[in-house]
Design goal:
The chain has 138 residues and is α/β, with parallel strands linked by helices. The chain is 29% helix and 25% strand. The longest helix has 13 residues.
Length: 138
C-alpha cells in the first residue's frame, strides 16, 4: 500500500512533524509549497493588510501551489498544516481542488499554538464531500 505525507509548513514545525510521521509510517514525504513563498510579513496575523489575513478572510482564495505530487498509486494520504485563523491555510483548499482524492483514505494533522483542528475538518468535509478518516493535533 502506497502512503504519502503531504505538508504545508511556514515556520518548519509542521514540516518536521510531517517528516517524523512519514518515517514512522514508511510513507513518502512531499512539501506543499506556495508558488509565491510566504514571507514573515505575509503571515503577520496582527496586520490586517497582510497576505495571510486577506487570504483567510476570503473562503474562495486559492493560493497557487508550486507543484503537485503524483498521487498515482497512493492509497492513504496524510495532509498536514498549521492552523491559521482557527482553520487550515487556504493553500490546503488549493491542494484539495487539484488532488484526485477519490478512493483514498485521508488523514489530517495540524500544528497550532492554541487552536484545534475540528473546524478545519468540518469545513474540508463539507466543501469537498470527503470523509476524513481521522484528524489530530501534533
Amino acid at each position: 500500500m502506497s502512503k504519502l505525507v503531504a505538508v504545508f509548513s511556514y515556520g518548519g514545525v509542521t514540516k518536521k512533524k510531517g517528516e517524523e510521521l512519514a518515517k514512522k509510517l514508511g510513507a513518502d514525504f512531499f512539501e506543499i509549497k506556495a508558488k509565491v513563498p510566504y514571507t514573515k510579513e505575509d503571515v503577520n496575523w496582527t496586520d490586517k493588510s497582510s497576505r495571510n489575513v486577506k487570504e483567510q478572510k476570503d473562503p474562495k482564495c486559492r493560493p497557487e501551489i508550486a507543484e503537485m505530487p503524483s498521487l498515482e498509486g497512493v492509497e492513504e494520504i496524510w495532509i498536514g498544516y498549521p492552523i491559521w485563523w482557527y482553520t487550515h491555510p487556504r493553500i490546503i483548499n488549493t491542494f484539495f481542488d487539484l488532488a484526485d482524492l477519490k478512493g483514498k483514505t485521508i488523514h489530517l494533522f495540524a500544528t497550532s499554538g492554541g487552536s484545534g483542528i475540528n473546524g478545519s475538518v468540518k469545513e474540508l468535509e463539507e466543501t469537498y464531500s470527503v470523509k476524513i478518516a481521522d484528524a489530530k493535533m501534533m
